[in-house]
Protein: Ornithine cyclodeaminase
Amino acid sequence: MKIIDGNQVQQKLTFPPLVEALRQQLCRPFTMPQRQVYALSDTADNQHAFALLPAWDEESIAVKAFTYLPDNPVKNPGCESLYSQILLFDRKTGVPQALIDGTSVTYWRTAATSALAASFLARKDSSRLLMCATGNLAVYMALAHASVRPIREIRIWGRNTQKIDSTIATIRAQRTDIEVTAANALQLDVPWADIISCATGSPTPLFPGEWVTPGTHTDFVGNHHKDCRECDSHLITNSQVYVDARLNVFSEAGELLIPVSEGRFSLDEVRAELSELCQGTALGRVNDKDITMFKSVGSALADLAGARLLFKMLQEQ
Structure:
């Protein structure tokens, strides 16, 4: 069994083959039970959790397990708040094939999932990206979107100037052909953008939906809580809404569940999930005037696609 660490993940993965591997994965028959998240404490101020995300198809079985201890860096210096591993099995024999650093794969597959969605939902001429994030996902998300659309300008928005500068420098180093700058003010940057990608920990909407102009594609990946959201109800009710997987989004995403509780939106109005776009059983963008919105909370199937791609690449090597 191969042991694949985070450094190997970073060295081997690039977005074009990963996005294509994910597309192919979603086009083939698969099984993906709802993921299980277990609270490790009953107290409101202690949000320790353990989660299991299984998926399989005719070739492989994968399960990702992760621990989430948000106070870990403070209570246990040198430790991270999240640790994750993916175990990959051969479906025909049941033989374990690889143990892979799940934290790194999660960054890559999250961004690749949004990029794959954008390939169906963003206008083909989209060249201006507003990235609302400066955390671990920010660079991945920006580079992934730039791999599927002709992005020429990226603006980075965040609340920490130092993190904004660091994010800009990292993207510039990898895409010297793209102009990357700090956002000025969301009231100006939101109408400017062709694609808006948000990956923040904000529990409340980042900007009014009224600021989003016709033809824009919006992408939200930062929130996983029923009572939190990165966008408001106005944006949901004025968008063509798509999700990565109904199974998880419908139980976790406040972006949709809060408007439902307000009586302003129905889950039946979600046009499709990503597998239906890939299989051609549902339409993506149909004109240049629609506002499209993609909500992702992550899926075990994307973990499977990333893990198997890595395993095969290292086998070939």
